[in-house]
Amino acid sequence: MEIKVLQDIFESNRNMADEIAALLKEKKVYMIDLMSSPGSGKTTITDRLIGALKGSFRIAVIEGDIKTTKDAEKLAKHDIPIIQIETARFSGDCHLESSWIRKCLDGFDLDNLDLVIIENIGNLVCPAEFQLGDDERIVVLSVTEGEDKPVKYPLMFNSSHTLLLNKIDLLPHLEYSMDEVMENVRRTNPTIVTFPVSAKTGEGFDAVVAHLARRIREKTGK
Amino acid sequence: MEIKVLQDIFESNRNMADEIAALLKEKKVYMIDLMSSPGSGKTTITDRLIGALKGSFRIAVIEGDIKTTKDAEKLAKHDIPIIQIETARFSGDCHLESSWIRKCLDGFDLDNLDLVIIENIGNLVCPAEFQLGDDERIVVLSVTEGEDKPVKYPLMFNSSHTLLLNKIDLLPHLEYSMDEVMENVRRTNPTIVTFPVSAKTGEGFDAVVAHLARRIREKTGK
């Protein structure tokens, strides 16, 4: 019975994700699902991406947190539409589901948007199991988390299109092997596109922004 | 119906946790549930604790991972009983449950043990929801994860007895406020015992080991 219910949850989540994907195709809106462990730098990355892309595209953000609106507050300076989901108001949930994203999208004027960035709950496990109808899944891994995470959390890395290897400004102070992490990345997902970055200093972001701008233009026709 | 099933899961998990607690009381075995985000340093900490405590106490380890036996392999040098749970063999699960711990305990000779260390799945959310029948919940937070995690993941910090604030060797290279994180810790759980440590250098571990040795002696009578 438990397994049956879980299958129902995944199936209804996937159906709604398909509906969202169809809606965003019609509206020509690109959507990113940004995922990582707690404290890997998702909000600082979102901040940098908005800063770099808002001159060219109309952006909105969906902020997922279990508790607090701290991340949304950090992004408020950009003066773009932001909707906060606090999952503790539902049941302390450890991921976002497509039905909640659908409700958030109803709160945006999709005819006047090009890009929606979803900042998912800080969790390297559960969010990977829930499709949200996005165009690109981006996983952030900070180099302070060690080289083994891609093989220890395979679904997250396997189901993502893009990897941002963050906090490279700290490399001089860590015993960290870029060769080893890249070998683990390739073994888990040979086609994932990887960008080493520092959200703190901005290093590596030109390439990320160029990659995203190209993908957004392909969909929006801008 | 979904909520009913979830309640059933939590209730049966708690019943088994109570059964484990009774068994460990009878056998005079102390059990620690070590939890954190991915990459916060649980395995390096476990390694240090075993090294410092194995002269005085008989120790066994339960290693939780979604995939791989890497962590167990790192601890193999200590020549103590280690049982690995790979949750991907069940359903990719994001936490450990008491029924699995019960089975692991059956694999140990409890009459000849003083301490069991459970290294939970790297996840700051779901493991907090599942009681395992342990004596002490220890949450590890690395300073690279930012100051806001205690208020963003309140259940984990609220339900833990002890906090190891890890990777303090990196503090000179971070913009990190110890005052701010401690304020967030106090606001979430005023009674949690906090130890700033570096699993890499060993700084701060004397105090942690003294604290644990005292707690283990209280239970085992050694």
Outline:
2 copies of one chain form a homodimer. Chain A is an alpha/beta fold and 222 residues long.
Comma- or semicolon-separated keywords:
7 strands; globular; alpha/beta; Rossmann fold; 8 helices; 7-stranded parallel beta sheet; homodimer; 222 residues; 40% helix
Verbal overview:
The structure is a homodimer. The first copy, chain A, is an alpha/beta fold and about 220 residues long. The first copy, chain A, has a single domain, classed as Rossmann fold. Helix content of chain A is about 40%, strand content about 20%. The first copy, chain A, contains eight helices and seven strands. Chain A has a seven-stranded parallel β-sheet with strand order 3-2-4-1-5-6-7, sandwiched between helices. In chain A, helix 1 (about 1-25) runs parallel beside helix 4. The longest helix of chain A is centred in the first third of the chain and has 26 residues, at about 1-25. The radius of gyration of chain A is 17 Å and the shape is globular. The N and C termini of chain A lie far apart (about 50 Å). The mean pLDDT of chain A is about 95.
